Amino acid sequence: MFNRKSKALLFADLAWFFGEGMLGPLFAVFTEKVGGDILNITSAWAAYLIVTGILIVIVGKISDKLINKRKLVFIGYVLNAILTFAYLLVDSPLKLLLIQIGLGVAAALATPTWNALYSEYKDKKQTGFLWGLADGGSQFFSGLAIIIGGLIVVTFSFETLFITMGIIQIISVILLYPILKKK
Fold this sequence. Notes:
The chain is mostly helical. It contains 8 helices and no strands.
């Protein structure tokens, strides 16, 4: 059912979604905390989605012809971890917007390449189940992460949340290590 590479991709993905999901709806509260308003919240989130959407198509096309998918997914995860820690430096809506754009680039590097590799590495006889694990797992862990993220902010601070998220993103990078090997 699972080989080493598909397992590495799945666990890295679940960690990614757990780390990313911790901010969830707290994003609006954080934006207001750094001086943002409703338009800043929507602009930052829209910038993330637009950048991700456009670049996913471009990266997907480029990764089919020019660049190693394993390296691109790894670079996307590393960039995501770095930018997650960069939330610690956000003190204005403009900086938040820039972080969101960077996170959009990271997601665009990782998403189409992750999907292509997961398709390549998984057992062809259990396609529906394995995609179900990936998609259902990401939703489950994001939901769980939202609750934990809220508890961290209420108990400690946004800074503690961002450090926790960054550490989890680093773990997702480490979990990708098996896919970097040739065999």
